[in-house]
Design goal:
By secondary structure, the protein is mostly helical. About 55% of the residues lie in helices and about 10% in strands.
Length: about 220
């Protein structure tokens, strides 16, 4: 899904594609000719608010709070780095002409990253948590176009970057905080006490501690 979204965003970037940015912008403002709102700046964090409220309601997430926080931190770093790097490389002018940092949409990337976290943490409890979070994220994307801050290619690519960043955050979070690393199957270590040791040509009658390694391939 992230590859499809980012690919479509790149395909329609700068007026390309079978349904161009300009055509989409024209159709949107036929439906919303004068409507403008700052709600997109509030809804951008709404999926994270949902994450906190669901957790406070007692619904158990897939990971504990520390590990969820670490996944969010890594995902946010990747998303922000990617978004601002691409913005400065493409230098696309926004529909309202305010600056040249249109592609991709950072608001949309942020909203979809948070929605992906909600979906991953609570999908085993109910799919409706993820559906609600993605609905909020989609609203952010729509409002960014209605407010003439982004083209369709910007929000589609931003959604892909947000989802991808969340997935990479989880994929790279193998050694979880507070959990003991697991050894491969059949491998074990155990402390032992060896008696009768030799040192410097002398034989001792005492003992020394040691560590026994055992591996029984399955």
């Amino acid at each position: 899904m992230p590859a499809v979204l980012i690919g479509y965003g790149a395909y329609t970037f700068n007026g390309g594609g079978f349904y161009t940015n300009q055509q989409a912008n024209r159709d949107i403002h036929r439906l919303f000719p004068t409507y403008r709102t700052k709600l997109d700046n509030i809804l951008i964090m709404a999926p994270y608010a949902e994450l906190g409220l669901v957790a406070l309601a007692g619904v158990e997430s897939k990971n504990d709070r520390i590990n969820v926080g670490l996944v969010i931190l890594k995902s946010e770093i990747m998303m922000l780095t990617t978004v601002y790097a691409v913005k400065n490389l493409t230098r696309e002018t926004r529909p309202d002409g305010s600056d040249n940092l249109s592609f991709p949409s950072g608001h949309t990337a942020q909203a979809f990253l948070a929605a992906s976290i909600v979906h991953n943490e609570f999908r085993d409890k109910s799919q409706w948590y993820g559906i609600g979070a993605y609905t909020l994220a989609t609203s952010v994307a729509a409002l960014r176009m209605i407010n003439s801050k982004h083209w369709q290619s910007d929000v589609v690519a931003g959604a892909g970057i947000g989802i991808l960043s969340a997935h990479v955050g989880y994929l790279t979070h193998r050694n979880r905080w507070g959990r003991k690393p697991r050894l491969p199957q059949g491998m074990s270590f155990s402390p032992t006490w060896q008696t009768g040791y030799a040192m410097g040509g002398q034989t001792g009658l005492g003992g020394v501690p040691s560590l026994r390694f055992t591996w029984q391939p399955k």
